[in-house]
Amino acid sequence: MASSIYTHYPWVSRPLIANAPMADFAGARLATSVTMAGGLGFIGSAMNAGALSTELEKAKSLLSSSQIAISSTLPIGVGFLIFAEKLENVVAVIAQHRPAVIWLSCPPESQDFAIWAKAMRTASPESRIWIQISGVAAAVEVAQLCAPDVLVLQAADAGGHGRSPGAGLVSLIPESRDELDAAGFSKIPVIGAGGVGDGRGVAAALACGADGVLMGTAFLASIEVDLPAKEYQEAILEAVDGGVNTVRGTIFDDIRAKIIWPTRYDGRALTSPSYQDYLDGVGLHELKKKYADSITGSDKGFGGERRAVIWAGSAVGLVKEVKAAGDIVRELRETSKAAFDRACSKF
Question: What residues form the membrane-spanning segments (predicted)?
Fold first, then answer.
């Protein structure tokens, strides 16, 4: 197991637990709460460099009252959707704030990873580059292209958007680890993401060869997450049987006014009346109209029929209670160790 993650991020407790850099949802409050609990907190960028800079200033202020040292880099990460960002704007923000981690994902072409990684390293040489991919061949290709400090392996069970098709963590992590090792990249740590909802999932990912775990859906039930409406969180808490009641597809983007995602990316969300109508053969024009009408209400479409898109991973059925993000991190750490102990007792 690569141990550099604990050298590079000295405030992190074992095992490494990070929140996903969910655009619009993961701001300074969530990121700093995760970091202050011994995890690695991420802010998600949403195509607005000015807003991101404001969140980073807020994060610095929040962390100044903690016992975590702020030295050459700010002890949080920032995540970027490459296809949606202007590189020159991002470079300026990174050079100013120097986050500990720069997360890159969703490029139109794989070569864009190399362009962005080079620019980020120039802007903030001490920041670490994390790159998210969804396949074994992609892991080796990206390792060869730009030598990332960490690879995030996103499984098909992840909520929100990802490259399609994909695999589950229990096959994606071991095979990627084997192929990376065989190609001479054994020192690149891998982080598992997608379908992890509690400490048992954390333990499983680590047993498969991950050096840490990243989670999104679990933090949708945090106090600090920034959601568009309270009904969004209520839907997350009510969801059950996540493998059945979430689904991946492009329909969740198709029904909205503007499609921005590159080809071969789709998203996992809670099933909804719009999705059922789609299965029943209702035309896209009518689906768009129903969606547009629903989001004009005070609940923004997340209440009532819930035609607004509620992104969530297949582990959503394990999320039952709203908690402080720091408590989520600490509980995951403790329960993952307990899960390991139980597993070992069966040998």
Answer: none
Cβ(185)–Cβ(164) under 8 Å? no
**pLDDT for residue 1:** 41
Structure tokens at 154: 């996103």
189: tokens are 């740590």
| 74 membership: H or E segment, kind and range | strand 74-81
What pLDDT, on a 0 to 100 scale, did the predictor assign at position 58? 97
Separation of alpha carbons 47 and 51, rounded Å:
9
Nearest Cα neighbor of 154 from 84, 225, 210, 198 is 210
CA angle 73, 224, 306 (to 5 degrees): 130
What gap in Å lies between CA 228 and CA 301, rounded to an integer? 10
**CB-based contact 289:187 (threshold 8 Å):** no
Domain annotation for the chain: domains and CATH numbers: 4-227+319-344 (3.20.20.70), 230-315 (no CATH)
**The tokens 């990460």 sit on which residue?**
77
Q: Is the pTM of the predicted complex or chain greater than 0.85? A: yes
Q: How confident is the model at residue 3 (pLDDT cuts 50, 70, 90)?
A: low
**What residue has token string 């994902």?**
105
Which is nearest to 246 in space by CA: 238, 258, 254?
Answer: 238
Buried b (16+ CB within 10 A) or exposed e, 79-93: bbbbeebeeebbbeb
Res. 236: pLDDT tops 50: yes
Q: The tokens of 108 are what?
A: 């139109």
Which one-letter amino acid corresponds to residue 326? G
3-class secondary-structure state, position 215: strand
